[in-house]
């Protein structure tokens, strides 16, 4: 149970990393059980910046034929989250994540790089990615402590991407969450290095901090998946697409068309 | 044997990453056996850019008291490498590493980022770090195939550090190994992203490509060690020291004093 819930969390986490910053939904295509109900249809978990309620809904354009028994069981079951308070859930989990992130980078020497890493990592935010990671773990019956290092890793990667994306040669932003961007506060050189250190720490954190009750082979697979989600076929590919599309008035919000257009250049 | 030799290789690899670019020596403090001789004293493997012969020598300032029997065995044994051709060894291993690096990044879409990654990674170099990794594996009786993914990872990390170090806000170099630096050829944005993708790939490569004969718990530990060697207490700390020391005429080649001086700021 520990290992399978960790794998679900890792998959959810890497799904959030490789998706767009605006694309805060998660498609689960593998069967899973929740509240004793077996879900066999593709399920989409959707969130938005406004923190609207989490919805569990079957895809209307499912490519998996529903089984009559499963459909009947789903129809007969009570609503999956009758008393679910999404806002409270998000805030509680975000507080847990914030505490873990705070502990993940002590203010050690050399001071400047650790200050810069902590400055950006602890500057706030809804912590959507790590909370989705914890939620995926809990959804399949796991204890959130199993997924907490991976949850923190997703936020470290996200923060790295923001620091580097804010640089003058990228989006050239002066402010992030109402505060000076990393390079405005610490200089471009330190900002780049803070991003590098956060990216490195994300992998180290999963490897060194995941509880030993998770089998090491699953940790290895999760690290491979994290790397794939971050690298040249994942997050970095998305950034390259952003650069390629700059100034292009034909770009629409249709992310798939957008990516197809530029990735296939 | 597979796992212990992998661990030795991983330790050697991370030792080369966290050391200075100029500091191409490796201190082995744990006992090991070579050519049926048990080495219990600290041993230093030293290389230099001029490819002078590899030396295996006991430390004169050993903090480990030699055992009489071991000392006698060492004295009676033949020279450890009577016919060792260091240059041929380096060239053979470098060719193996180059072939593996070439395969590690296919020229996939999006083309620009993969071109940039391959441009810097395959631009040449002595491959000292990966060869030391393979040598450490072989020294303790392992097959080099066990350590090859970690060896490649060290070169990916090294290349990332060079790309980011060459940027205008860092050392502002136009040439690297006789060719335009990454940002001169592809632009600063793509250069930063190519470094990010290489760093991410280094961890993914170890996780996904290390042979299954190496136990996953050792792979997890090696990834944690790699992260530690790269991050804010390793390679990035060294870069921060370089930035802090810029223009300081008091900086000497005494690396330890240098690091102590700046890391303790």
From TrEMBL, chains A, B:
Sections of the chain in a coiled coil: none
Entry keywords, A to Z: Isoprene biosynthesis, Magnesium, Metal-binding, Transferase
Organism, scientific name: Linum tenue
GO cellular component assignments: cytoplasm
GO molecular function: metal ion binding; prenyltransferase activity
UniProt similarity note: Belongs to the FPP/GGPP synthase family.
Single Gene Ontology BP annotation: isoprenoid biosynthetic process
Matching Pfam families: polyprenyl_synt
Cofactor: Mg(2+)
Protein's recorded name: Geranylgeranyl diphosphate synthase
InterPro entries attached to this UniProt entry: Isoprenoid_synthase_dom_sf, Polyprenyl_synt, Polyprenyl_synt_CS
Record bears the keyword 4Fe-4S: no
């Amino acid at each position: 149970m520990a290992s399978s819930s960790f794998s679900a969390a890792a998959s959810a986490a890497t799904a959030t990393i490789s998706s767009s910053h605006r694309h805060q939904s998660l498609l689960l295509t593998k069967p899973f059980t929740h509240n004793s109900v077996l879900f066999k249809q593709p399920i989409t978990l959707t969130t938005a910046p406004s923190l609207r309620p989490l919805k569990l809904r079957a895809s209307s354009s499912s490519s998996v034929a529903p089984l009559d028994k499963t459909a009947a069981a789903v129809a007969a079951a009570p609503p999956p989250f009758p008393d679910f308070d999404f806002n409270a859930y998000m805030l509680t989990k975000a507080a847990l994540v914030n505490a873990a992130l705070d502990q993940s980078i002590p203010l050690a020497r050399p001071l400047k790089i650790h200050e810069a890493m902590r400055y950006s990592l602890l500057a706030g935010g809804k912590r959507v990615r790590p909370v989705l990671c914890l939620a995926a773990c809990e959804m399949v019956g796991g204890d959130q402590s199993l997924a907490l290092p991976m949850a923190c890793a997703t936020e470290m990667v996200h923060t790295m991407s923001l620091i580097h994306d804010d640089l003058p040669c990228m989006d050239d932003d002066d402010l992030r969450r109402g505060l000076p961007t990393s390079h405005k506060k610490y200089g471009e050189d330190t900002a780049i290095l803070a991003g590098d250190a956060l990216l490195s720490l994300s992998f180290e954190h999963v490897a060194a901090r995941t509880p030993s009750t998770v089998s090491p082979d699953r940790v290895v697979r999760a690290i491979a998946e994290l790397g794939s989600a971050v690298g040249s076929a994942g997050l970095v590919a998305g950034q390259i697409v952003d650069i390629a599309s700059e100034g292009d008035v034909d770009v629409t919000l249709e992310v798939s068309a957008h990516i197809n257009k530029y990735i296939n250049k």
